Amino acid sequence: MPTHAIASYTKSARLFALYQSLPRSEEDAVSLTELMQNYGDDPDNYTNERKNLENDLIGLNQIFNDIFYSSALIRAPAWGQNISGKTARFYIEPSFSIDIINEQTVFFWEMLDKYTANYLPVSFKQGITDKITQLRRQDKDSFHQSQLGQWQQHLISTQYCKSTNA
After folding, report:
1. Which of 49, 91, 125, 155 has an alpha carbon 20 to 30 Å from 37's alpha carbon atom?
2. At what angle are helices 46-67 and 11-21 packed, to 10 degrees?
3. Do residues 91 and 23 make contact, with C-beta atoms less than 8 angstroms apart?
4. Which residues pair with 90 in a beta bridge?
5. Percentage of residues in the chain with pLDDT exceeding 70?
6. Considering the entire predicted model, what is its pTM?
7. Are 25 and 94 in contact (CB under 8 A)?
8. Quick one: 86 exposed, middle or buried, by C-beta within 10 A (0-12, 13-18, 19+)?
């Protein structure tokens, strides 16, 4: 768990912290009010932090749909349904894991490590480094031989060449 309020982090760090703080079962699903206990800590800015939390949940859901092709972030009532008079509750599908190994997952973690980790808090950077190490042990060569792995290597090589020529 983060040591500071999640709202104090940059957007990418907030999304990771939010993912980590969401329960993994329907029985433990939490409301926005419950999530705000770890998310925000500024009573004078509560309304803005709560709106950011709502937007972060929507963003996290979109990432899961776009990158992992999964509806892993569950909202009851379901996303898109009117919640008038109801309390929305959130949880991560118990069978979902960003640790599932496929080309897109490896690509996601390696790009995160290469291009955004310097902007994240040290604890998140260490978590990403640990994840890359784990992924490399599990699937050392198959990703790098895939089309996505080849493309990633081209991007990294091109970026390296640009930075050394500058």
Report:
1. 125
2. 80
3. yes
4. 30, 75
5. 76
6. 0.59
7. yes
8. exposed
Tokens of 166: 């500058």
Would you say 93 and 71 are in contact if contact means Cβ atoms under 8 Å apart?
A: yes
Q: Please write the tens of the pLDDT for every residue from 48-92.
A: 999 999 999 999 999 888 877 788 999 999 988 888 888 999 999
Q: Assign residue 10 a region: left if phi > 0, alpha if psi is -120 to 50, beta otherwise?
A: beta
E strands in the chain: 30-31, 73-76, 89-92
Residue 120: its H or E element: none
pLDDT tens, residue by residue, 133-146: 776 666 655 666 66
- Identify the residue whose tokens are 């080849």: 150
**Distance, CA of 74 to CA of 147 (rounded, Å):** 32
Asked if 74 and 90 touch (Cβ cutoff 8 Å), the reply is yes
The half-sphere exposure of 148 on its side-chain side, counting CA atoms within 13 A, is: 12
Q: Is 37 helix (H, G, I), strand (E, B) or coil?
A: helix
Residue type present at position 94 = P
Enclosing H/E stretch for 134:
helix 122-138
Q: Which amino acid is at 141?
A: D
